[in-house]
Structure to design on (321 residues):
């Protein structure tokens, strides 16, 4: 009942949030053009790593597929390198999925924070959550890593069990100078709303934090005065596991591109919300198109791996090479 009333009365409760769709101020063609202007050209003038070095913090004994899906999607969207920081029990399995991923079995080591922290300096964006699990020791390590990420001003995407962690203690993401994107599904969004008791608490966490609510209609919530959007184009009724991981990895790559080309977005140096919002839009419409294409062929049998096979085709249709 609380959540239903909250959502029904959000205009009254959260006047600082702009609820218009972005299409009311910028049409799809204009948004796609903005995204394209930030995508690094394949002109031979870049060196390995410039198109994106992405970190995935997640992967545990039970959950090895999620960090793989996030990592391989970041690569297939266009990042150059992906580092996965997981527990030792997950490392060999994740490595066996793909030689393209650089896998570090450090998350459960005695000096995990000290061992992982030096690698963070190399990364352009980090995803926390895919396959993370909910072990207390892991949460302690990740909480310390978030503090380090904050001090280094690295753009951050938080998904899955990462959202469960920060919902227990929102202070660990408070007042980031770099972009932070929370990507809850319906249940995770409701849990977040319950925690902040009216959602207005998000306005106090910092202007660089946005919430990307996933669902039948994807939607951005943001405390900053930035154009918002909703999207229900593409997709299908199939809700197999792994789709959120594909999305979070895709967002990370776009986030690096958008933040490094802020001038193309007419973005204030002090307001990273536009880059975050556009990154979510770019990834959302791409993944929805992958879902639509895979479902057209596999129908009810479609799984997340089928969607990955369509990233290149969907990317070309939306953004060209």
């Amino acid at each position: 009942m609380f959540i239903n009333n909250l959502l029904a009365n959000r205009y009254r409760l959260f006047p600082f949030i702009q609820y218009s769709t972005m299409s009311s101020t910028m049409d799809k063609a204009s948004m796609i053009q903005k995204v394209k202007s930030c995508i690094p050209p394949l002109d031979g003038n870049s060196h390995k790593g410039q198109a994106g070095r992405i970190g995935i913090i997640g992967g545990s004994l039970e959950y090895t597929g999620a960090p793989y899906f996030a990592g391989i999607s970041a690569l297939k969207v266009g990042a150059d390198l992906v580092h996965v920081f997981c527990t030792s029990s997950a490392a060999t399995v994740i490595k066996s999925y793909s030689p393209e991923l650089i896998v570090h079995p450090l998350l459960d080591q005695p000096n995990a924070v000290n061992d992982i922290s030096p690698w963070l300096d190399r990364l352009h964006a980090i995803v926390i959550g895919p396959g993370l699990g909910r072990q207390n020791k892991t949460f302690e390590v990740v909480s310390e890593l978030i503090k380090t990420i904050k001090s280094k001003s690295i753009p951050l995407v938080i998904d899955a069990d990462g959202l469960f962690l920060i919902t227990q203690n929102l202070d660990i993401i408070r007042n980031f100078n770099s972009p932070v994107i929370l990507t809850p599904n319906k249940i995770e969004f409701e849990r977040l709303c319950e925690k902040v008791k009216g959602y207005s608490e998000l306005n106090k966490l910092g202007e660089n934090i946005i919430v990307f609510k996933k669902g039948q209609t994807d939607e951005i919530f943001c405390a900053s005065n930035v154009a918002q959007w909703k999207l229900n184009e593409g997709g299908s009724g199939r809700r197999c596991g792994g789709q959120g991981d594909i999305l979070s990895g895709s967002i990370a790559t776009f986030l690096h591109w958008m933040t490094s080309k802020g001038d193309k977005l007419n973005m204030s140096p002090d307001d990273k919300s536009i880059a975050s919002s556009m990154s979510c839009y770019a990834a959302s419409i791409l993944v929805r198109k992958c879902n639509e294409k895979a479902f057209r062929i596999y129908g009810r049998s479609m799984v997340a791996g089928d969607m990955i096979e369509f990233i290149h085709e969907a990317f070309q249709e939306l953004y060209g090479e």
In short: The longest helix spans residues 273-298.
